[in-house]
Write a structure and sequence with these properties.
24% strand, mainly beta, 83 residues
């Protein structure tokens, strides 16, 4: 399972990058995760999605091209030595 799930997603086509944020902020807006139903999205390109896969479908891209959306950083941590 992905470490990133629901939240705000924004696709920057020029950089070919999908941004994710639990809360998104800009000069003229604040998007809070627990208030997503109260916004008329998109706002400044931000959409609310429940999974990275949902965001990729929305943006019309293949999630396989964005491995950072599905990598789990906890999988790469070494276990501490037990003495």
């Amino acid at each position: 399972m992905s470490h990133i799930e629901k939240g705000y997603y924004k696709y920057d086509q020029d950089a070919n990058y999908i941004y994710h944020a639990n809360n998104a902020y800009g000069p003229s807006f604040t998007l809070l995760e627990d208030q997503q139903d109260s916004y008329d999205l998109p706002i400044d390109g931000w959409y609310f999605c429940h999974t990275p896969q949902e965001a990729c479908i929305l943006f019309g891209v293949d999630i396989e091209d964005y491995p950072y959306l599905t990598e789990d950083p906890d999988e790469h941590q070494e276990s501490p030595d037990v003495i």
